[in-house]
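Quick log. Single chain, no ligands specified.
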Amino acid sequence: MARGRQRNGDVMESEAGSETSPTGITNIPTDLLRTFVAICELGSFTKAAHLFELTQPAVSAHMRRLESLIGADLIEKSLSGVTLTECGTEVLRYARRMLAVNDQIVSGGGLQSQAQVMRLGIPNLYAPTVLGRILEEREAIGGEFRLQVRCDHSRGLLRSVRSGYLELAALFASEADLDEAVVQWSEDLVWVRSHDFVHNPDEPVPLVSSPNLLLPDRAGMAALELANRRYEIVFTAFDTLARRAAAAAGLGYFALPRSVVTPPLVIEEPGVLPDLPKVNMGIFARDDLDATALAPLVARIERVFTQSSS
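-> predicted structure:
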């Protein structure tokens, strides 16, 4: 494998024989770990190769060496990208910590503290209303952290926290998952529509939904089924802005948290459709983080969400 560029103090190289000491104790080169983390974050061997200016076979060779050293498969390839094995999930957690220490030593000689990267996840539905406030308060929220934000659906965010992709995430949570939350609160769900849309009660209720049925979608359908109201999904899109545009165009109703309803969408009048339940929300933290040290940051993030819903 050809030598790649130097990145954060470790060198992408392939010479064998540097992993095992004369005593037989195995050492994991940081270049292999950095390749592994990049594949996980980017979801692609090809993208990781572009990042490090290596060939894809070189990146694949890095993974083969890492898995050989560890003695287990870490990644499973699929048509949808890459999936971590159970062992891969654990290795990813440790790899992040090791690389953070490596980068701190290289950049500051171990004498200067480096701002820790804090990856925060928020639901796509909240991006139009909450993201701006998070960025406005970046300094206050971030403090000694370098804040990065990722938007995804709640189930994806929770998987990312559990897998170590994210340090923190605010998300919709089921009752079963709430036990893991650092903090939790609830918010009203409402039906939204375009300002001039009028539903014929003799017709099925037209719904705008995500194909993967987010928690608000499921809650809306459950409320209609409980009231014996017929419904049909008339528009689906993973993209939140596309679903908002469909509802605003008058295609149908959209279940949303009250705090994220913005013009041109309006909230339907009471009694037209069945009432929607409250939804649980929580902030989840990577399980190896110090909850006490993170408390001020978590409180800031909670305030952004709860003030927007008041």
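The domain at 116-186+280-308 is CATH 3.40.190.10 (D-Maltodextrin-Binding Protein; domain 2).
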